[in-house]
């Protein structure tokens, strides 16, 4: 597997932010679309994919010669290199393939710890615990500084905030300021507005598409 423990990807950071210590799983169906959006946003921030509009549909395609070395990002890039894909098709294809390897990376880094209970095999259960690395706390602080404190976001933090809002998770991370979050991050428009000078048009289109699709997942699946 081609990845460096010193260089977490955007979807790894997003999954870590969505993790709730003491849970047995992270997210539901909405998570898959948002994680796929994070994969595409990571590629976009590095200039590895571009977007166009065709009959009102956002199309995503790989920038030739710009394949990433990271295995998860490279698989998504290769899927798009075959031919341009509609954002909905791209999210649907990428989402189901990334949650398990991303969680494995977070466990390998020590950001998340798996705690097993009960017997062996099918009779055991696993709880996800904070690994004690403090990276989740730092990421939360970065997002809070932007959303609550009004700090100018970096492209990466702006993308994380937009995708968190699309997942429906941001109000949970900022319970005391859920109303303010709703006003600033209404369906991802905060990223397009306040951070337009920093986040590329491609990234904005991907985040907006991810937010709309995640918002369409029935509430019971979240």
Explain how this protein is built.
- The protein is an alpha+beta fold.
- Helices cover 54% and strands 13% of the residues.
- The protein contains 10 helices and 5 strands; from the N terminus they run ααββαβαββαααααα.
- It has helices spanning 10-18, 29-45, 71-82, 87-109, 135-147, 155-167, 170-173, 178-184, 189-194, 201-215, and strands at residues 49-54, 57-62, 85-86, 112-118, 124-130.
- A 3-stranded antiparallel sheet has the order 1-2-3. A two-stranded antiparallel sheet has the order 4-5.
- A hairpin with a 2-residue loop joins β1 (49-54) and β2 (57-62).
- α1 runs antiparallel to α2, α1 (10-18) packs across α6 (155-167) and α5 packs across α6 (155-167).
- The radius of gyration is 17 Å and the shape is globular.
- Residues 194-199 and 217-222 have low confidence and may be disordered.
Give the topology:
Layout lengths: L9 H9 L10 H17 L3 E6 L2 E6 L8 H12 L2 E2 H23 L2 E7 L5 E7 L4 H13 L7 H13 L2 H4 L4 H7 L4 H6 L6 H15 L7
Antiparallel strand pairs: 1-2, 2-3, 4-5
**Low-pLDDT regions:** 194-199, 217-222
Q: Mean pLDDT, nearest integer?
A: 77
Number of helices: 10
Please state roughly what percent of the residues sit in beta strands, choosing from under 5%, 5-15%, 15-25%, 25-35%, 35-45% or over 45%: 5-15%
Question: How many strands, which pairing sense, and closed or not: the largest β-sheet?
Answer: 3 strands, antiparallel
- N-C termini distance: 30 Å
- For the secondary structure, the number of strands is 5
Secondary-structure element series: HHEEHEHEEHHHHHH
Order of strands in the sheet with most strands: 1-2-3
Task: Return the structural class.
Answer: alpha+beta
Helix content: 40-55%
Instruction: Determine Rg (CA atoms, Å).
Output: 17 Å
The rough form would be described as globular
């Amino acid at each position: 597997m081609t990845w460096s423990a010193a260089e977490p990807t955007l979807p790894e950071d997003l999954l870590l932010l969505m993790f709730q210590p003491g849970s047995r799983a992270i997210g539901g169906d909405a998570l898959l679309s948002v994680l796929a959006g994070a994969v595409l946003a990571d590629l976009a921030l590095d200039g590895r994919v571009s977007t166009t509009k065709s009959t009102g549909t956002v199309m995503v395609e790989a920038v030739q010669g710009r394949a990433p070395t990271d295995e998860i990002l490279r698989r998504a890039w290769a899927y798009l290199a075959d031919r341009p894909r509609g954002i909905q098709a791209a999210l649907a294809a990428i989402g189901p393939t990334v949650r398990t390897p991303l969680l494995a990376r977070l466990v390998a880094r020590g950001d998340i710890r798996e705690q097993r209970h009960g017997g062996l095999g099918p009779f055991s259960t696993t709880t996800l615990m904070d690994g004690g690395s403090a990276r989740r706390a730092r990421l939360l602080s970065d997002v809070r500084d932007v959303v609550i404190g009004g700090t100018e976001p970096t492209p990466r933090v702006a993308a994380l905030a937009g995708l968190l809002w699309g997942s429906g998770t941001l109000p949970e991370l900022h319970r005391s300021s859920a109303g303010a979050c709703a006003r600033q991050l209404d369906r991802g428009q905060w990223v397009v507005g306040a951070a337009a000078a920093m986040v590329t048009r491609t990234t904005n289109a991907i985040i907006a598409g991810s937010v709309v699709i995640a918002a369409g997942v029935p509430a019971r699946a979240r």
